[in-house]
Amino acid sequence: MEDFLEMYHLLYDPYYPVVCMDELSKQMIGEVREPIPGKPGKAQRIDDEYVRNCVAEIFMEVEPLNGKRHVAITKHRTREDWAL
Question: Which of 5, 8, 18, 29 could form a disulfide with 50 if both were Cys (CB 3.0 to 4.6 A apart)?
């Protein structure tokens, strides 16, 4: 693990870039009932029931030594999405 972390301390080399990739799924939810606004001394009340709208797939590539990043959000996690 230490050898892997040492890559972040190297000088930037455009012929040997350090690129990291991660992906994440996020569920998009909506309210079933309107939240009740807060009053002085009381917090807003939000019902715990929700409706599932969709799922978003988030792909992120980072080149930390060059300070670049790219983020793509898709509706599916297919081979084509990974390739892009």
Answer: 29
C-alpha dihedral, 33 to 76 to 82 to 6, nearest 10°: 20
> 25-82, pLDDT tens digit by residue?
998 888 888 888 988 988 988 888 889 888 889 999 998 888 899 999 888 888 887 7
Domain of residue 38, residue span: 2-83
> Considering its fold, how many domains does the chain have in total?
1
pTM over 0.70: no
Judging by beta carbons within 10 Å of its beta carbon (0-12, 13-18, 19+), is residue 58 exposed, middle or buried? middle
